[in-house]
Amino acid sequence: MDLLSETPQLPLLAGTAIAAFAIHALRPMKDTSGFRELEKPDSTLPVIGNLLDAATRVDDLHDWFLEQSLCFEGRPWKFTVPGQGEKIVVTSPDAIEEVMSTQFENFGKGQFQTDLLSGLFGVAFGTTDGELWYHQRKAAVKFFSAKILDMFMCESIHKGMLRVHSEIESAISKNEEVNLKMLFQDFTLDTFVEMGLGVDLQSVGAKTRHPLHEAIEATSKIVFERFRRPVWLWKLENWMSVGKEGELRRHMSSVYSWMHDVIQQGVEQSIMKKQGGEGPTKQSYKSILELFLDSPEGEAEGFTKDHLVDFILNVVVAATDSTVDTLTWIFYAIHKHPGVEEKLREEMNKAFTGLSAGTYLTMEHLKPLAYLEAVIKETLRLYPTGPLTFREALADTVICGDILVRKGQQVMTPQYAMGRNPAVWGPDAAEFRPERWIDSETGKVKPVSPFKFFSYSAGPRICPGMSLAMMELRIMVANLMHRYRFEMDPSNDGSYMMGVTLLMKQPLRVKAVPISR
């Protein structure tokens, strides 16, 4: 289902326009003398602003942001949607650094975004501000930096890869296609649920999908619909538990019920061990839940069971969606650029001389593969998992020296547009060219400012699981390419579907061809 395929009904548009006119006419004038007046799209209309743009470009809104950003040549600009206020759009690394880092205390997620995303991510460090964000962020950094969690992920990924290979081999034996996107969904959900809760869903190869998978997938779509609906309407439906919001509440109720049961079992087991005089478990790898339960009491201060559920749900959903999307776009991009594929295979063949096609490649094997990392980063540049980022001003402030941002006003960064903008990445910004990441003298990957390469956010809110995510991407891509070549369905045009992340609209159907060594 395409989330934005339905054009808003005429009565709703008319009502919104009337309300916007009333607000516009009654609001007090604010003194903005001395500040820059930002440019706005030529399509902006009186009173309703860019409402028609939002309605007519619902299927390719990211490309609308790209078109406008190109028109303004990297300069900040603004647009308006009635009921959501005037938004400022920035695409320059300097402006992003100011919002995300230099003035971090002046910008947060804000209540608008917290309300929108809480239906999917819960109330956790990815959707909140203030003390709750600080405590959960601190816990996230601690857990994700634990070597014992790295070991857990390595074990889980290896187990999942064996299942993925089994599914592909089965399809080869039957001369059938494989939907890589669905395979990636099952693989990543298994991996990150096991990382978070220590539970193996065994989704890969299962005849029926786990209810958790279906609930998260359906909820993600419903949550994104909130972005194009009046806040009062979806909040009313949520309160009444009707329509799509009623469906969302039912899905999340089942997710929370399942997660509470799993966590309760973990808590009871931990209590029994402590009562029996046992200390923290000494196994070689642990899930986030186990790390939390084994941590000193002071470190868990302020964490309720609900907070823990939201924390782990945030990690699972965010990590699963972003990894699935990136893997899907990587294999699409490699197929569309045969020269890139051959160069990547040359690098792998040189590094893996003497290894059979059946050898499982670990991070130790992949350390010398600079071009592989460049391919992944180039994919993230052009196909960012979070194509739009919002920050809300927590107080009146000034950015870029002369742009006034009022308290409650949103500043947006369209990463999809930014990655394709020549003002940021040069005249070949629209080209898929991994070589841009390689230092010509050292042959290694060049460091790039996180405020320019913004796929994992930047500043104090930079993704704490970035290293684990990159590890999974490297291992998955390398192991699949080491064993197979993929012939892609030519009907796949690479179009995206609007969502919280950058989803490929079509299945990624391929025929796998084994590589003999």
From TrEMBL:
InterPro entries: Cyt_P450, Cyt_P450_E_grp-I, Cyt_P450_sf. Gene3D superfamilies: Cytochrome P450. Its cofactor is heme. Keywords: Heme, Iron, Metal-binding, Oxidoreductase. Heme binds at residue 463. PANTHER family: CYTOCHROME P450. This is Cytochrome P450. It comes from the Eukaryota. It comes from Pythium oligandrum (Mycoparasitic fungus). One of its GO terms (molecular function) is oxidoreductase activity, acting on paired donors, with incorporation or reduction of molecular oxygen.
